[in-house]
Structure prediction request, 431 residues.
Amino acid sequence: MRKHVDPGKIPFKVQAIASTLRDSGATPLIVGGPVRDVLLGKQPQDWDIAVNMDPQEILQVFPAACTVGIEFGRVSVGDVDVVSLRAEKDYRDKRHPSQVMFGVPLEKDLERRDFTINAMAWDPFTGEIFDPFGGIKDLERKALVCVGNARERFEEDPLRILRAVRFKTCMGLNLDGEVVEAICASKHLLSQVSGERVFAELRRILVSPSVYQGITDLYGYGLSAIVLPEVDKAPDQAAAGVSVCHSDLAARLAVLLGITETGIDEVKTRFNLPLALAKEIEWLVLNCDPQIILDNRSLPKGRSGLWKQSHGYNNDPGYLARRIVYHWGARQLERLMEVKRAIWLGLGNSGLPAGYLFLAAGHWLMLQSDCQDFMDIALDGNEIMGLLDVEQGQLIGEALEYLEDVVLQNPELNKKQALSQILLEWWSKRT
Prediction:
């Protein structure tokens, strides 16, 4: 029995591209992940259209298309990929084929794909689903099965091993027995995959609601030893801690590194992490001890204010919360609270740790305050120079730090007139 799905689920821009291809004499079909997602009742994020044209013929229809990947039969029309029906051979770099043959039948194109649930095509006009490898049945029984020989699929591109775990984690699928056997036999090949590609799969596992299962599977199949060895130091605690942390990549990685007492440097290098993400994680890891509030090594090295107080902070949790928000942002404060709580619980403790409680109190006080105006100090450097009748230099920095501390302790004082008077009093005591 043939399966049909309403083409009305296809976005207008995708349907328009398909119509243009059809008007040019081609037979366009939606392929891969979008078909799977629609059958699962999900809204696809990416759309691929396969067509019985070679890449140059596609460019004649869409001359302004992006040609990155054209040698593998792919061009991009906006954010929609249009791909030539093709067969591939000899994946010498464990990712890209060294031979690509265009003009093959649809079934031949679909048989090169990784899993049966990704090897379906959908007619964007009639709604008919083409499913030569039983992907619909496998979706219904929640099974992840490779197209053809599982080991061959993984040897072509070992990243498919991690994709299998990701699909299991994120979609609740069960791995077919042959898939599991192939993972165990081929997992060593993951060491040949670039860190960036590995991390693209790991990040989806790490932010999944089923991250506990994902980390457990990475460890159970012996994959973490190759791609995320930090897990192997404390697999049960790592899975538990990360799973009770909100779905935030930086926070969950900080929990993992905090529980396993691992620094960020090796992970940053291994995955070539974006600088901003690495800095966020580094700060969280440095301050992740659940029983302390902030590690003094993470504090700004100024001449006055927070870092001059006893133990690096005073006893006002609202002041400390504002300090953190001022220097690192509200999201980092929320993340740090979450990281401390998750590490504490992941290590098997009950209740809530002292560091979390102090920050939570500060966060609550900050939100309850009527005065939230503390991010922009009311006097700038030029105004300070005018008030003190001095030239630009180190003194201006000291004055700004002093006023910053005044405002963070008492945000209601963040007015030009009030700060001008406070600044002149400070200056009179210095001179």
